[in-house]
Amino acid sequence: MKLTVLGCYAATPRTFTNPTSQVLEINNEVFLIDCGEGTQVELRRHKIKFGKIKHVFISHLHGDHFYGLIGLISTFMLLNRKTELHIYGPKGIKEIVLLQLKYANSWTGYPLYFHELSSTGPQVILNTRKVTVETIPLKHRIYANGYLFREKPKPRKLLMEEVEKYNIDVAYYKGIKKGKDAVLEDGRIIPNVELTEDPEPPESYAFCSDTSYTPSLAEQLENVTVLYHESTFLEEHAYLAAPTGHSTAREAAAIARAAKVSHLVLGHYSTRYESIEAFKKEANEVFDSVHLADDGKVLHFE
Amino acid sequence: MKLTVLGCYAATPRTFTNPTSQVLEINNEVFLIDCGEGTQVELRRHKIKFGKIKHVFISHLHGDHFYGLIGLISTFMLLNRKTELHIYGPKGIKEIVLLQLKYANSWTGYPLYFHELSSTGPQVILNTRKVTVETIPLKHRIYANGYLFREKPKPRKLLMEEVEKYNIDVAYYKGIKKGKDAVLEDGRIIPNVELTEDPEPPESYAFCSDTSYTPSLAEQLENVTVLYHESTFLEEHAYLAAPTGHSTAREAAAIARAAKVSHLVLGHYSTRYESIEAFKKEANEVFDSVHLADDGKVLHFE
User: Fold this and answer.
1) Distance between CA atoms of A107 and B142, rounded to whole angstroms?
2) What residues of A are labeled active site?
3) Which of A106, A215, A253, B81 has the fewest CB atoms found within 10 Å of its own CB?
């Protein structure tokens, strides 16, 4: 699982900080999560091929999370993209994009699908062969969702030494990896447990931004591998967090601990702070494995 | 007159090229012309104070000329701007901006005025104490206007030696600069021509992008000081220019020559060309004073 942070600062793009956008690579699928102004340039800078992006998830309709979307859609059009593109986001996103395409008298030469969300409970919105994606309803000033990406269970791992010992034909491998027993030519049955071992457990990534501190989130986030949770503020500015629908680093860590996640990634820092190290320090008082997102940072989780 | 080119490349923003946006400072007024994605970051990079920008002129509703506008408006909001902001652009721009503010449930704390254009003839759209701005109807794939900024005639220059010789009180200076004669205490009349000399002639700046080659433009552009005219293509790609509503460098120069402007600035280059020097060379075959716009370039004209 690989996370490329294109931008992770709150509010306005600045000379050296980008608004929210990240690319998640999980089980060989690529997902773009949020798309602040300038995202297309950051994608180029990181040499992420535009054609690989087929699904874009927008958390909410504040500008720092989606003002780069219309430019990305237009650029794909100018580059003669043919691959379909799916946009997931709050109700309204389709109207905003189509209005701008209408006034430009420009229509995409590729299929553009909108999946507008309005549910207040979690729902599975994408189910591929390799990954499922479900919404994480968040509490913010406007309707907002996080997204939970889960790898599908992986096939069992063949114990090649055993498989070869019984001279099993390669045509049966797929079935054995799915858990089937093997039937030899002489009729003997070799139980699957002799031929395979457990695969790596499926990994999962939860993106939660923007949100006020919501302890009930922990239930849906239980045991996820990596939780990205916004931490706009430090505790010293906790009085600003709740009224603006944001969280502190300590609150993000409290969610991580309650949900027993493996790793916490912090981001969406207010630009009032000179350094982001204090966010890690504060979160570490509550939770061990804390990573700081930063613009251009690539995080690998195995 | 000072022109800061924030971006001058056609089509999509890239790692090292920005879409169209420029800041014109003329007669102590500051105008933002077009506002492609990333403009707010370029304004910061050039340390152009946001508060100085009170008028934004959008040529047309293709993304590379206005996708940065909504972000700029939002950032002004987040920074608690109080000064009014005027947006001039094609009909539709108000609907696009307000739709996005509505879904963000965010409204500007500063007065935001839209001046939507639909006229197909030139019209004066701004008339301050120091400058007038009129539209330049352009021929492009969608409704588009250039903008012509003209300094108001400046006051006559006092010949201080003469003024002091007659012991004229400072209270009369303003009137004399406007062209009045002086009446001395003994009743003598000193004709204005003895006390003043002609001021600098008013300067003017015409922004023409995007447009196909339109010879009739020369009439409205006659004798302007500086003409910015798009040159998306070189002559070798002239066959692409007309159908896409664009011009070549040679065509831009032909307009400059026919209009007898003092200086031509080229820009809106297609990113297909490795170097922009060829644009100057081609235009120079037709017109002498050719300047190449480039991202980050500041041009002074006296």
Assistant:
1) 13
2) 64
3) A215
Cα distance between residue B49 and residue B46, in whole Å = 9
Q: Which domain holds residue A218?
A: 2-154+200-300
Residues of A with CB under 8 A from a CB of B: 11-15, 37-38, 40-41, 44-45, 61-63, 67-68, 70-71, 74-75, 78-79, 90, 92-93, 95-96, 99-100, 103-106, 141-142
Tell whether the model's pLDDT for residue A116 goes beyond 90: yes
Local structure of B208: helix, strand or coil: strand
Is residue B42 located within the same domain as residue B74? yes
Task: Give the count of domains, chain B.
Answer: 2
The mean per-residue pLDDT over the stretch B184-212 comes to 95
Q: A102: distance to nearest CA of chain B, Å?
A: 10
What average pLDDT does this structure show over A184-209? 95
With an 8 Å Cβ cutoff, are A11 and B78 in contact? yes
Calculate Rg over the CA atoms of chain A: 22
Domain C-terminal end among A138, A173, A197: A197
Which among A14, A78, A99 has the least Cβ separation from residue B96? A99
Extract long-range pairs of A48-55: CB within 8 Å, 24+ residues apart: A48/A4, A48/A23, A50/A75, A50/A76, A50/A79, A50/A81, A51/A81, A51/A83, A53/A23, A53/A85, A54/A30, A54/A83, A54/A84, A54/A85, A54/A86, A55/A29, A55/A31, A55/A85, A55/A86, A55/A88, A55/A126, A55/A133
Tens-digit pLDDT profile for residues B115-169 = 999 999 999 999 999 999 999 999 999 999 999 999 999 999 999 999 999 999 9
Closest CA to A298 of A44, A5, A1: A5
Edge-to-edge, what's the strand order for the sheet holding A55-57?
A: A112-117, A85-90, A55-57, A29-33, A21-26, A2-7, A298-300
CATH number at residue B231: 3.60.15.10
Which of A143, A172, A197 corresponds to the end of one domain?
A: A197
The predicted structure's pLDDT at residue B39: 97
Tell me, yes or no, whether A15 and A75 share the same domain: yes
Q: Are residues A17 and A134 in the same domain?
A: yes
Residues A166 and A238 in one domain: no
Buried b (16+ CB within 10 A) or exposed e, A181-202: ebeeeeeeebebeebbeeeeeb
CA distance B152 to chain A (A): 35
Do A94 and A163 sit in the same domain of this protein? Answer: no
Minimal Cβ distance to B99: which of A37, A99, A104:
A99
Contact B140, B58 (CB under 8 A): no
| Distance spanning both ends of chain A, measured CA to CA | 6
A contact test, residue of B9, B15, B108 with most A CBs within 10 A: B15
Q: What ipTM goes with this model?
A: 0.91
